[in-house]
Design goal:
mainly alpha
């Protein structure tokens, strides 16, 4: 029976959230889907470097995003691909990210000063931190030019992405290939269960450690686990979009909060070691006070959201997602065999 027209209209106050592109398709075999996602991500990273100098910053951002996505994906199927392949591919992505991290870091320091001025500008004199901002922008411009003009660095980054693409292209997706290659991906929850729960378990542990003994390094470690788990939730969105996507969105928010926290800690460390960037001691003291206040707010907000994500145990999460997997696969089978209406 057709629903009344009024029930087909989206309410005006409804929240419409697009599905992430970095996800499996409903009913897609696990090996096929993970291979597709890996290749798509690598292709996006490579193509971004051909968009011209004006888009170089976005190319760096896309490259670092790709390395995080693939490291999250590898962690999900670590037991399937084998420890040797996992360690090699994870190290490759980490190495690529390190090659371009200086450019990203210099850009973020400029953004961090702008954030503080936006937040506390009504309490500050108009030119507060103006000199610091200009000097940081100069540092970033030099850093970006050095990388863009380096005849080896960018070419090496692109080459390593392309070689990774070649390796992932030859990745067997048929689970029976385990008998020959020892690394085919089974289309079952057992293929991802241990990787998913281990990522969750480490994130939960890092959150507790960060608040028991706070330090920028501990919060940064938690942030990395949050990002891995966020991308894993995006991959697994089709298992139950209403629930899993909600977790991915919350994890993305935690990652953004912790990212700001890390960026401000890095800014303070940089200014402390490079006094020439902010020679006025009064401004340095003010910068430290405002950054520390903002970091405290960010860490409080992260804790509230983190306690929601990590409220259950790893064992409970494993049981829950196994049920999601079985239910999603059963629903797909029913849909595939259902008679047309």
């Amino acid at each position: 029976m057709a629903l009344p027209a009024t029930e087909l209209v989206t309410p005006a106050n409804a929240i419409v959230v697009p599905l992430p592109t970095f996800r499996l398709q409903a009913g897609e075999p696990l090996g096929d889907g993970l291979k597709r996602l890996s290749l798509d991500s690598l292709e996006s990273a490579v193509s971004a470097f051909y968009d011209g100098e004006e888009a170089f910053g976005m190319a760096v951002h896309q490259a670092r995003k790709t390395t995080k996505q693939l490291r999250a994906l590898l962690r999900l199927v670590r037991s399937e691909v084998g420890e040797k392949a996992y360690r090699f591919e994870s190290a490759e992505m980490s190495g690529i990210s390190a090659m371009i991290s200086a450019v990203r870091s210099s850009a973020v320091r400029v953004e961090s000063v702008a954030v503080l001025r936006d937040l506390y500008g009504s309490f500050l004199a108009p030119d507060t931190f103006a000199e610091l901002s200009e000097r940081l922008q100069s540092v970033h411009a030099r850093q970006e030019s050095r990388v863009m003009e380096d005849p080896v660095l960018v070419a090496n980054v692109v080459d390593r992405f392309e070689r990774a693409h070649d390796r992932y292209s030859s990745w067997p997706t048929d689970e029976t290939s385990r008998e020959v290659y020892g690394r085919g991906i089974r289309d079952s929850y057992e293929a991802i269960g241990s990787g998913l729960t281990e990522t969750f378990r480490k994130g939960r542990h890092q959150m507790v450690a960060a608040y028991q003994s706070p330090s920028p390094a501990r919060f940064h470690q938690w942030r990395k686990r949050v990002k891995y788990f966020r991308y894993q939730m995006e991959i697994l969105t089709p298992l139950w979009p209403e629930v899993v996507l909600g977790m991915a969105i919350t994890l993305d928010r935690i990652g953004a909060l912790l990212g700001q926290d890390h960026d401000l800690a890095d800014l303070l460390e940089t200014v402390s070691s490079r006094i020439d960037l902010c020679p006025n001691p009064v401004e340095r003291s003010l910068l430290k006070a405002l950054a520390e206040q903002r970091r405290s707010d960010l860490e409080t907000a992260s804790r509230i959201l983190g306690r929601r994500i990590y409220a259950e145990t790893a064992k409970s999460l494993n049981t829950r997602f196994e049920a999601f997997w079985d239910s999603a696969r059963h629903a797909h089978q029913l849909q595939a065999t259902a008679l047309p209406l």
